[in-house]
Design brief:
Layout (H helix, E strand, L loop, with lengths): L6 E3 L4 E3 L26 E5 L3 H13 L3 E5 L5 H7 L3 E4 L8 H11 L4 E6 L4 H10 L3 E4 L4 H15 L10 E3 L2 E4 L4 E4 L2 E2 L4 H12 L4 E3 H9 L9 H16 L4 E6 L3 E7 L18 H8 L1
Parallel strand pairs: 3-4, 3-5, 5-6, 6-7
Antiparallel strand pairs: 1-2, 8-9, 9-10, 10-11, 12-14, 13-14
Helix pairs in contact: 3-4, 6-7, 6-8
């Protein structure tokens, strides 16, 4: 099927239109940019016009420590990566006639993203088409939040059975970053970091040697577009530096690129060259000078 042309599907009477006309199609991105956070927190997006359903679901997932973002349309892939979304719950009726193409587009670009369809009454043809397009599961409304959450968990277990356990520690200078423990250590001492500070340190260390722009850091750690004039990144970098310097004095890890952002690179203390002190020449006494002139 040519995804750029308009065709008719008799099985479910849904017309496919040009998906790319409503969604920018960036180059496929690496799926490892969507890891589960070290705490096991799941970040999910909900695309549904039923505000009551979204509210009830939010209360339940937040009680589990998950993060939920309510969206009105499917964003581009790079935006989903910036939000660090692990699962997306969507109602295909909001996507228009190109709903299956949109699911196919998400699956092709983000193979590890859990895609759960929740909608009202549907035909067998629609469900089959959605699952074949790339949806992981299809749940008919009304549905209980517990069942939806359980299905999301099941999908994520299949897609990432041991992602957080196989990640190797990051060792840089005197710092060891353990994503599996959500901790960073310096000289065998735990650095007292908040969740946000740890995620910031982990992001910088995973991209060691690369200058990350402030806007990019904010999107990938906070999960939102940075507002003009927001100094949150600078404030957190300053706090992070202060905590690291306490346990690793003299080392420099986070380097500022003014007007751009920050770069992570462990640089040891620079030893100051030893100063050689020349012995002072003995001053001649006045009496000795007088005797010499006689």
């Amino acid at each position: 099927m040519n995804r750029h042309n308009s065709v008719s599907c008799a099985a479910d009477s849904i017309t496919v239109v040009n998906t790319m006309s409503i969604i920018d199609a960036p180059a496929p991105l690496r799926p490892d940019l969507l890891p589960l956070s070290p705490t096991g927190t799941v970040r999910m997006a909900v695309i549904d016009r039923d505000s009551g359903f979204a509210t009830v679901l939010r209360k339940r997932v937040e009680s589990l420590g998950w993060d939920q973002r309510d969206l009105t349309q499917v964003p581009a892939v790079d935006a989903l990566v910036s939000m660090r979304i692990h699962a997306i719950v969507l109602d295909p009726t909001l996507l228009g006639p190109q709903w299956a193409e949109t699911i196919e587009y998400l699956r092709g670009n983000l193979p590890e993203l859990a895609i759960i369809v929740t909608t009202g009454p549907s035909s067998v043809g629609q469900r089959v088409r959605g699952l074949r397009a790339g949806a992981d599961d299809w749940l008919s409304k009304p549905c209980h939040p517990e069942e939806l959450i359980a299905r999301i968990e099941a999908v994520m277990r299949r897609r990432r059975p041991s992602a957080s356990l196989t990640r190797e520690p990051i060792v840089s200078g005197e710092i060891v970053i353990r994503a599996d423990q959500f901790q960073a250590f310096c000289n065998d001492q735990s650095i007292d970091l908040t969740r946000r500070e740890f995620e910031l340190l982990q992001l910088l260390a995973e991209n060691a040697g690369t200058v990350l722009e402030r806007e990019d850091i904010y999107q990938r750690v906070w999960g939102f577009q940075m507002a003009h004039g927001d100094r949150s990144v600078d404030v957190f970098v300053r706090k992070l530096r202060h905590k690291i310097e306490k346990l690793s004095p003299g080392w420099e890890y986070i380097h500022t690129h003014f007007g751009v952002g920050y770069r992570f690179a462990a640089e040891p203390p620079v030893a100051e060259p030893e100063r050689t002190v020349k012995p002072k020449a003995k001053a001649k006494s006045k009496s000795g000078s007088a005797a010499a002139t006689k």
